[in-house]
Queue: 2 jobs
Job 1
Amino acid sequence: MRRSKELIEKRKEFVIKYVTLNQSKQMKVIVTELTEMLFLSERTIYNILMAGAEC
């Protein structure tokens, strides 16, 4: 199943915003919460964050 670019961008924005709002927590906790909320793998979340850091 192909994902639309709009959906991917919204997902990236959500992940980056969530991490920013929860900076006081440990990264492992944030990633676990995102994994449960978005049904994504930890690797996918870290890839989104790394891509966001490059921009």
Job 2
Amino acid sequence: MGAHIYFEVQSFTAVRFIGKEVLVGKKNPVPDLWKSMLNDGTNNLLQSLPNRVSPLRDTIGWMGEYNPQTKEFTYIAGIFAKPDTIVPNGFSYRDIPDCLMGIGWIQGTTSHLEKGAHGKTEKIMRTNGYMPDYSIVGISMEYYSFDKYANIKEDGNNIFTFGYYLPCKKIV
């Protein structure tokens, strides 16, 4: 089975995004960041925050603050929390305001669905009459549902679902 993509638009409610941050450029430290967070207790701490609003065990990759001169951007691995949540020491955060969010739900038999997700989501978004809108918030996010992405079945018959979030607006 090849990858399939489905599209939806949501009225996204403001959240505080909390996690650990790296700068991505010529080198990509993101895989090591996730490996570290999932193995050193960092993700467990985030999952236990009392004001967490993302579903238990789900994780999100926030991308923003792109610098066109250096071609670098900030990547934060973390979770959604209530907007007024106190950020634990040593963690980064970004406040995401209310906005219209387009989501490309990519499904496939491999867990490597993030490759090309931005372009695929933008394409299906336009096909459905929407376009990216970075005027309110200039970000994109990778959404990893524990139940649909990380919960591996022992029999090997896995269908992975990965979400790619882009702020959007209706094409007029």
